[in-house]
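Question thread 4412

I'm putting together a teaching handout and wanted feedback from people who do this every day. The idea is simple: show students a protein as raw sequence, then show them the structure tokens that encode its fold, then repeat with a second protein so they can compare. Below is the first pair exactly as I plan to print it.
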Amino acid sequence: MLKIGITGGIGVGKTVVSRMFALLGIPVYDSDARAKWVMRHDEALRQELVAAFGQETFTEAGELNRSYVASIVFNNPERLEQLNGLVHPHVRQDFESWVKAQEGKPYVLKEAALMYESEAWRQMDQIITVYAPLDVRLKRLLQRDTHRTEEDIRAIIAKQLSEEEKMARAAHVVYNDDQRLVIPQVLTLHAQFLSHGNN
């Protein structure tokens, strides 16, 4: 089964593109949502996180204390690397289990913002990068994330791998730039992946 990764920086519209594939009947693994699930439900990982970041990592109700963890890692690259180093291997295992459950599907998609940073690209056969120029991303994010300032958004973007590098490393680019229609691009890729699976 073909495993296709889909990535791109904040505000490019990865999730919109992933949903289009989902509407075509393709299973989509949402790395961000699954990472949250794994952090809550994988007992071994929970113990590793508490050992690394303290009891406050989880609330009394057993939920991940996101604001506490964010306060530790946001401006501390070493601690962020430590967090990712604990979480990403468990998410990779979860993805492999999930893929086995999708038997009979022509291909699957894994949506991940940190496709390269987490080494998740190594599990993929091909990568799609979704691209949008910075001004379009800023406009979208200021409308969507009303709690964030432009400065906040630029700080997040500055910490992510550059779009140029993501595009250079990807087999396919979907342009979600408000200039080109996205659906025809998705349908073209879908047809390619189906024909690849039938060869």
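The second pair follows. I'd like the answer to focus on this one:
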Amino acid sequence: MNLANKLTLLRVILVPFFAFFMLAGDIVPYSYLWAAVIFAVASITDTADGKIARKYNMVTNFGKFLDPLADKVLVVTALICFVELGWASAWVTAIIVAREFVVSGIRLIAAGSEKKTVIAASIWGKLKTASTMVAICVIIILHILVDFGAVTAETFPVQIISDILMYISCILTTVSGIKYLWDYREVLKTDA
């Protein structure tokens, strides 16, 4: 296994630790800070694995499969933890998660078609990913500030800011999902 794939695998391994610290607020002091550190390390591995794979010609089918899967597992885990903690609405999370399943399904169908079509990320997909990652980071940071007593949820609009960020992510997720369905409708027709 090459270095790029090891970094991707590390991101998957970090997910349960991230989830533990996100949900261990009652038993682990500053658990959100630990979760943020783990999320940051996982995000760095996401950037590093791709750069290393391309620069040193380490691109593998395993990496092509595992890298987007690792990203989705990390993001979905964060969003499910947010719902559990009351930081995000379940319906917003459901839309974001459903889009990930739909687009992954379209990619699988396209890759398995006669043309072996590889679907690259669109600008809308990249905006969706960026907005979701920013929302996750900002929401965790806001709760770290509450945890440290720098702000209080009563005097600072933590939930309003969190909701706005999640709504923006949800809108971009919906738009990118609809665009994928529209752009690759022919792939779906030929395999129907």
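Top answer:
Good format. For the second protein you could add a caption like this: The radius of gyration is 18 Å. The CA atoms of residues 113 and 190 lie 8 Å apart.
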